[in-house]
Amino acid sequence: MSNVRIDPLDFEKDVAIGFSFPLSNKTGGGFALNYDTLSQARDNIKNLLLTEKGERYMQPDFGTSLRKFIFEMNNEDIEEGIEMEIKKSVSFWLPYVTIDEIKFNRYENIVHLYIRFFLNGNDFDKESLTLSLNAKQI
């Protein structure tokens, strides 16, 4: 049996770990919250990938440069570039996360991403997210 790491906060169902992304008001006031580490990791990845480098105040290296791929021609370099950009940013800013799989497709000026990941030490409990990057976001 392998050693599976479970964050102790996951056992505290009434203790919030962080904000849900995108930020939105929930009924009754306040922001929607995450109560488990896997959900918070999903939202942290989403926040990281949708933040353009230079956009975050006092942290110019936070984020990615994924939007530059929206207008590039389809070829093997694009696929490799997108994958490297995601893995490099996640490994630096979210070292507790391992990217398991990245798939994407492009249609005109839209890039659809599918990312499957897990928390280090727990590769049995995988989570995924989908994102769309398009020219309207620029």
Order of helices and strands: EEHHEEE
| Overall CATH class | Alpha Beta
Q: Which fold name corresponds to the CATH topology?
A: Nuclear Transport Factor 2, Chain: A
End-to-end C-alpha gap: 48 Å
Count of the domains: 1
Ranges where pLDDT stays below 50 over 5 or more residues in a row are: none
CATH architecture: Roll
**Global outline:** globular
Task: Write down the overall mean pLDDT.
Answer: 81
> If you compute it from the alpha carbons, what radius of gyration comes out, rounded to the nearest whole angstrom?
16 Å
Work out the helix count: 2
% residues in beta strands? 25-35%
Described by strand count, sense and barrel closure, the largest sheet is:
3 strands, antiparallel
By DSSP, the count of extended strands is: 5
Task: Decide which structural class fits the backbone.
Answer: alpha+beta
Helix content: 10-25%
The side-by-side strand order for the widest beta sheet comes to 3-4-5
Structure overview:
This protein is α+β, with helices and mostly antiparallel strands and 138 residues long. The protein has a single domain (37-137), classed as Roll (Nuclear Transport Factor 2, Chain: A), CATH 3.10.450.40. The chain contains two helices and five strands; from the N terminus they run ββααβββ. It is globular.
Give the tags.
single chain, 138 residues, alpha+beta, 3-stranded antiparallel beta sheet, two-stranded antiparallel sheet, 5 strands, 23% helix
Please give a quick description of this structure:
This protein has 138 residues and is α+β, with helices and mostly antiparallel strands. The protein has helices at residues 37-50, 76-93; strands at 18-19, 33-34, 97-107, 110-119, 122-134. The chain has a three-stranded antiparallel beta sheet with strand order 3-4-5, with helices on one face.
